[in-house]
Amino acid sequence: MRFIVGLFVLVSTLSVSAHELKGSLPDHYPPYSIVGDTTKGIIPDLLVALNSFSDHAYKAQPNTTRRSLKLLHEGQIHYRFDSERWVTNASDYYWSDAIVEVNDVLVYPASGPAINDIKQLQRLANDRQKPLRIGTRFDYHYPTLMPLLNNGNMVRDNFYSEINMLKALADKEHGQLSAVVIAEHVYDYLLRSRPELVGELVKSNRPIDTALYQFQFPKTDNGRINMLYTNRLLDKLRRNGELEKIVNNYTQ
Predict the structure, then answer these.
(1) Known Gene3D superfamilies for this protein (predicted)?
(2) Apex CA 233: angle with CA 209 and CA 3, to 5°?
(3) Homologous superfamily of domain range 103-210
(4) CA 15/CA 113 separation, integer angstroms
(5) What is the widest separation between alpha-carbon atoms in the chain?
């Protein structure tokens, strides 16, 4: 009972002492973050919506995965964005409720063999004399690919952006990739701006993995407080339909 009362007081007093919550968002991960002359996307719009309800000011700057983790560990930022499914040491952090569900899909050349799920990818990798080359994002973790990567039947070609990954896949003259792994929302968004790739590439009709995109907080007392407070705001945005509206604005 004392724990419940204490937790209630903790959460209730958060709105009293306002302060700035500094964070980091991906340097370019459209449509979640679109970095250009101005930064827009699902996450920047979400932060604006959170601030309309919050006594704290959520602010975030674009950074690479490695840089943002360093800032979080050093205590220079309060949060970043990731999924506990994509982090090998997920229990070392606090995680918010889901912002959006992310489906990873395989994309392969239209002229190549169909790769519509992880089983087809595994069969293709097992039947080759050389390891199958697959495009991935630098510093990203892919749980469902680990068995193929660990047994040597598949190797990663790492890229710093999804568009470069897709260009390499569509390169018929120099291309060595059999497929790439990409979030479905990202692929669909990029294809709307790069229609020349539509006829060259095919998206798998089933995801190879599904994860929840979340706020990631350090496992400290303040990290726990910020996680609880953020969850309360996310629940408001979910119940009033604003969160769905933000996601649909970039994905439909």
Answers:
(1) Periplasmic binding protein-like II
(2) 95
(3) Periplasmic binding protein-like II (3.40.190.10)
(4) 56
(5) 68
In eight-state DSSP terms, residue 84 is G
d(CA 36, CA 209): 29
3-state SS, residue 171: coil
- ω into residue 195 within 30 of 0, thus cis? no
Query: What is the residue-level pLDDT of the chain in tens, covering all 252 positions?
Result: 444 444 444 444 443 346 899 999 999 899 999 988 788 999 999 999 999 999 889 999 999 999 999 999 999 999 999 999 999 999 999 999 999 999 999 999 998 889 999 999 999 988 888 899 999 999 899 999 999 999 989 999 999 999 999 999 988 766 789 999 999 999 999 998 888 887 889 999 999 999 999 999 999 999 999 999 999 999 999 999 999 999 999 998
| Segments of the chain assigned to CATH 3.40.190.10 | 21-100+211-249, 103-210
Residue 24's closest CA among 100, 74, 102, 78? 78
- Close Cβ partners of 192 (under 8 Å, ≥ 6 residues apart): none
Report d(CA 83, CA 61) in Å as an integer.
Answer: 18
Residue 185 near residue 251, CB atoms below 8 Å:
yes
Residue 50, SS3? helix
Say which CATH topology domain 21-100+211-249 has: D-Maltodextrin-Binding Protein; domain 2 (3.40.190)
Residue type, 94: Y
